Amino acid sequence: MISILEKYVAPAALSIVLHGALLSFLFFGFAPAPAEREVKMPNFVQAKLVKLEDQSKSQKPAEQPKVVDLTQKRKEQERLAQQKKQQELKRKEAEAQKKKAEEERKQKEQQKKIQEEAARKAKTEAERKAKAEAEQKQQEQLRKQREQQAFEAALAQEQAQLQEESYAVTAQSYMSVIAQRVIENWSRPPSARNGMQCILLIQLVPTGRVVSVDVLKGSGNTAFDLSAVQAVKKVEQFTEIKDMPPEVFERHYREFELNFNPQDLRQ
To answer: What are the chain's domains?
Structure first.
């Protein structure tokens, strides 16, 4: 309403006022001057007729107020609200999917780490077991080897002992033969008496030949001791030694002691 007044009523009222003022001026301004008065040059006022255009024609017709369709507006608002709601739902759904994908990625990484750690532990445990088994096998082999070595050593020692005993028996059998040979070549001195004996140290070669003979422990009677030495030298070679096993000779007769003790001496 105010817009209509500003556009039509105010310009019309202004035009009427201006036209009335102009007509009043024209009417009263041309009245006859009084008689016999000093004629004075009137001050003419030049006026121009101002043609006022009808502003109602120049201005655009007032826009008719639009009739708002509340139903359509409500529907539009509902549509926009629904569209906004769908966009919000899509945004939330996208965020949820992104969050879900991120959680799945983290779970996969965690699962991968767990699997890698489990594999590492399994590998370490397998290596430990393999190492322990290898060490156990090695220890078992060493134990068996030591037992075998101990058994072989004991067996060798037993065999050596048996062999030594066999050598000793063989050597003893030769010793009696050698002693008999020496007594057979002994010349009894007059001073020899029952119970006299001396120990002789005799050295031989593998053929049985006498290399040397010395008194290791005397009887106290020089004649008796020297007669025993002479008896060994008379033998010169113990031929029985040639048939003796080399091991027996090297162990017992390369150098040996002979206890010279005749049993048939005088009282």
So the answer is: 160-260 (3.30.1150.10)
Cβ(235)–Cβ(209) below 8 Å:
no
Predicted structure pTM score: 0.43
Name the band, by pLDDT with cuts 50, 70 and 90, for residue 10: low
Kindly provide the b/e burial profile for residues 205-229, where b requires at least 16 CB atoms within 10 angstroms of the residue's own CB. Answer: eeebebeebebeebbeeeebbebbb
Phi, psi of 194 (to 5 degrees): -65, 135
List the one residue out of 253, 159, 243 whose CA is nearest residue 203: 253
Residues 6+ apart with CB under 8 A from 231: 182, 183, 185, 186, 187, 260
pLDDT tens for 87-100 read: 999 999 899 999 99
| 159-to-39, 179, 245 alpha-carbon distances in Å | 190, 29, 17
pLDDT per residue over 214-247, tens digit each?
999 999 999 999 999 999 999 999 988 888 888 8
The SS3 of residue 198 is strand
